[in-house]
TrEMBL record:
Organism of derivation: Anaerococcus octavius
Family to which the UniProt record says this protein belongs: Belongs to the CinA family.
InterPro entries named among the record's database cross-references: CinA (IPR050101), CinA-like_C (IPR036653), CinA_C (IPR008136), CinA_KH (IPR041424), Competence-induced_CinA (IPR008135), MoaB/Mog-like_dom_sf (IPR036425), MoaB/Mog_dom (IPR001453)
Name this polypeptide is given: Putative competence-damage inducible protein
CDD domains: cinA
The MoaB/Mog domain, residue ranges: 4-173
SUPFAM superfamilies, A to Z: CinA-like, Molybdenum cofactor biosynthesis proteins
C-alpha cells in the first residue's frame, strides 16, 4: 500500500507556518508499513488542488491531507476532494457534528451557524470526530478506489484525530520498525565507506542530524519476530563495522550517554569554553540528571579571562597564539586545578576560519585534537560541540586513541 501527503494552506507556502503535520503523518505511515509516494504543499487554490488530487487518484491507496477544512471560502479541501471522487451526492448536515459545534461555542447557535459548512458531508463519507476544534475530518473514496483522508490543519487537532479516528481506518500493510544508531567522530563519507549501505533486509541508511551522523536500520516483514531478527542482524553489522564509533543504539541524545557514564562512576565534569561560548555545558544541562554531574562551567572567551580564571600563561598565548594546542593544554590543566573534576573539557578556535582545538582531560590523561571545520560561525560552533561530546564519551570508555600524559 502507498500514500501521498498534502499540507494545504497558503500560509505554509508563504513561510508563516512550519509544516510539522506532514512529518508526523509520514512517521505514522512508516509504523503501518505504508510506502510514502510524495509529500506536497498546496496553497488555497481550488484549481491547483484539484489537479494535484487528480494526479494521485487511482495511483495511490491513500491521499492524506491536513488543512483547508475551516468555515471560510478559501477552505476548499473537502469540496475539491468530493469533486475528484465524483460523488454525485447532496451535502447533508451531520447532526452529531453540528451539535459538537454548538457545544464548542457554549450553546451559541449563531456562532455554530457561521461554521455550519464544516458539519456538512456527502452521505458516503466516513466522518472523523474532532474533539479539540470545530472542523471534523472525513474519509471519501473515489471511483478509482483511492481513499481521501481529510484532517484539520492545527497540529494538536490533526494528531489527536489521526490517533483516535484515522488509525482505525488504515490497514497495516506490514510490520516496519527502525532502529537509530548514533555514531561519533566519523563524517558521513567515513561512515559510508566502512559499512555496506546497499544491503536490504534490513536497509541501513546514513543521515546527518544536529548530533552528527546517524545510521537508521529499517526492517520490514509480515511478523514481529522476523522484523526483530532483521534489526538484530543490522545492529551486528553496524557494531562489527563501526566499533568503537558507535555512541548509542538507544533513542537518547549523546549528552545523556555522557551523563550516564559520569553517574555510573560518581564523577563530575567541568568545562572551559572559548569558541563554543557555553554551548557544550548548555547541551549537557538540557538533559535531566545533569545537576548530578556538572561541577563548574566557564566561558573563557577573552585572553584575559583565560589568564585570570584558568591560569593560562600570557607568554604561551603570545608565542603560540590563543588557538593552539599549547594554550588548550594549559586551559585543561588550569580547569582541573580549579575544579578537581574527573572530566575536564576545553575548546579554543576561530569560528570564521573553522580552525579549532578541542581537548578532554580524564583521570590525569589529556586528549587533544585539531579540527578544520567548514560552515558559518554557528555551524562551526555546533560541530565543535558534537566532536567534543563524542570525544569525551569515547575517552571515558577507553576507546579513544592517541592519549597523551600530562
Amino acid at each position: 500500500m502507498n500514500a501521498q501527503i498534502f499540507s494545504i494552506g497558503t500560509e505554509i507556502l508563504l513561510g508563516n507556518i512550519v509544516d510539522t503535520n506532514s512529518q508526523f503523518i509520514a512517521q505514522k505511515l512508516v509504523e503501518y508499513g505504508i510506502d510514502l509516494f510524495k509529500m506536497e504543499t498546496i496553497g488555497d487554490n481550488a484549481d491547483r488542488l484539484y489537479k494535484a488530487f487528480k494526479e494521485c487518484d487511482g495511483k495511490v491507496d491513500y491521499v492524506i491531507t491536513s488543512g483547508g477544512l475551516g468555515p471560510t471560502p478559501d477552505d476548499i479541501s473537502k469540496e475539491v476532494a468530493i469533486k475528484v471522487c465524483d460523488l454525485q451526492e447532496e451535502l447533508k448536515l451531520d447532526k452529531k457534528s453540528y451539535q459538537a459545534l454548538i457545544d464548542y461555542f457554549n450553546g451559541n447557535e449563531e456562532s455554530a451557524m457561521s461554521n455550519i459548512k464544516q458539519a456538512k458531508f456527502p452521505k458516503s463519507a466516513i466522518i472523523l470526530e474532532n474533539t479539540l476544534g470545530t472542523a471534523p475530518g472525513c474519509i471519501l473514496t473515489s471511483k478509482k478506489g483511492t481513499k481521501y483522508i481529510l484532517m484539520p490543519g492545527p497540529p494538536n487537532e490533526m494528531k489527536h484525530m489521526f490517533e483516535s479516528e484515522v488509525a482505525k481506518h488504515i490497514s497495516k500493510n506490514a510490520i516496519l520498525k527502525s532502529k537509530t544508531v548514533k555514531i561519533g567522530l566519523l563524517g558521513e563519507w567515513d561512515m559510508a565507506r566502512r559499512i555496506d549501505l546497499d544491503r536490504t533486509e534490513p536497509t541501513i541508511s546514513p543521515y546527518i542530524t544536529d548530533e552528527g551522523p546517524i545510521l537508521r536500520i529499517t526492517a520490514k516483514a509480515d511478523n514481529e519476530k522476523e522484523v526483530d531478527r532483521q534489526l538484530d542482524i543490522g545492529l551486528e553489522i553496524v557494531n562489527a563495522s563501526l566499533t568503537p564509533y558507535v555512541i548509542t543504539t538507544q533513542d537518547v541524545r549523546k549528552e545523556k550517554v555522557l551523563i550516564d557514564l559520569l553517574e555510573e562512576r560518581n564523577e563530575k565534569v567541568s568545562t572551559a569554553e572559548s569558541i563554543t561560548g557555553g554551548l557544550i555545558s548548555a547541551s549537557i544541562i538540557d538533559i535531566p540528571g545533569a545537576s548530578n554531574v556538572i561541577s563548574e562551567s566557564y566561558v573563557t572567551y577573552s585572553n584575559e579571562v583565560k589568564e585570570k580564571v584558568l591560569g593560562v600563561s600570557r607568554e604561551t598565548i603570545k608565542e603560540y597564539s590563543v588557538v593552539s594546542e599549547e594554550v588548550l593544554s594549559e586551559m585543561l590543566v588550569g580547569l582541573y586545578n580549579k575544579t578537581n573534576s574527573s572530566l575536564c573539557i576545553a575548546t579554543t578556535g576561530y569560528a570564521h576560519t573553522g580552525k579549532v582545538w578541542i581537548g578532554v582531560l580524564y583521570n590525569g590523561m589529556k586528549y587533544t585534537k585539531l579540527l578544520q571545520l567548514n560552515g558559518d560561525r554557528n555551524r562551526v560552533r555546533l560541530r565543535t560541540k558534537i566532536k567534543v561530546i563524542d570525544t569525551a564519551i569515547l575517552v571515558m570508555r577507553g576507546e579513544y586513541e592517541n592519549n597523551i600524559g600530562i
